[in-house]
Structure prediction request, 368 residues.
Amino acid sequence: MSVQFIGMIQPHEVSETITRKGPAVDPAYVRVFAQAHEHAGFDRILVPASSSSPDTLLTVNYAAAVTDKIKFLLAHRPGFVAPTLAARQLATLDHYTGGRVAVHYITGGSDEDQQRDGDFVGHDERYARTDEYLGLLRQVWTADKPFDHEGAYYRVKGAWSEVKPVQAPYVPIYFGGASAPALQVAGKHADVYALWGESLEQAGDLVRRVRAEAARHGRTVQFSISFRPILGATEDEAWARAYRILEETRRLRVDQGYARGGPQQSEGARRLLADAAKGDRVDEHLWTAIARETGGRSNTTSLVGTPEQVANALLKYYDLGITTFLIRGFDPLLDTIAYGRDLLPLVRAKVAEREAARAAQPAERKAA
Prediction:
């Protein structure tokens, strides 16, 4: 198995430790940020979505125009655009980017955030809607003639698209969500299932459960996991930086009027907080303090240590069957450069060594 790295860009500079300055859309920053990922050797870049963020499809379109080969992962929320229209939009984008697009479908773990866009459907029902939505998308992308559909959430007659994705049979589907309804949708539709940065024990459990759901549909799924690596020349230096990041996060949250993070309304957040309840340090290099501080919001767990230590920690997740790592820093642009210099080549070399050793084992046993 090969290893893949996904980064993340936003349309302006911001993080838990950096307050946004300037406009919500900064084209110059997007250009530099996307090009930095390409130069660093990332395989793909996520463009995240929320109810208040700039449009992801247009951001991907711009970032693709200022890069040459790096691929993109566009965050998309089912339920706000008709699936037939979304299918044509995404297939068109796939053409304009030369087949460099995948889509991460985010059903929504927060009622509050969904309601800002006028969506008052409950949590479990949102996943039922996503199930039907993804089925319709795939049908539009692959149908060789017009079709009708009448379901619980969508009804179309004579649906057809003259534009099909460059990638066959369709634009790759990434999917997240750790609740029982989410896992059912993942097993049925996901090409890649995305986890937040959980402990080895919890991540292994989730991998097994998603595989079991996929097997019910005669499918296999790949896996991605998200971390915020904090690197240092020495382990002490890395931990010192981690605690500076925690203090700055706390300071900015107070300045911005946020209380200490209460639990985010999602199963993924609950799982991060369950790890955080075990202590700030889990599995030797997994650091949960930022997740605890922010209520489990987004991918807020870190792997802390030297590049060698963090690479070895990632390999343990690779051994669970997780072959894609979504990594981003608290100093987004500078950390991207550092990852490309110090971490990505090291992980790739270790994975190559491991796979070469595995490939040699049958031959060695046969010779013996």
The mean pLDDT is 93. The domain at 4-229+300-367 is CATH 3.20.20.30 (TIM Barrel). The first strand starts at residue 4 and ends at 8. The CA atoms of residues 121 and 304 lie 39 Å apart.
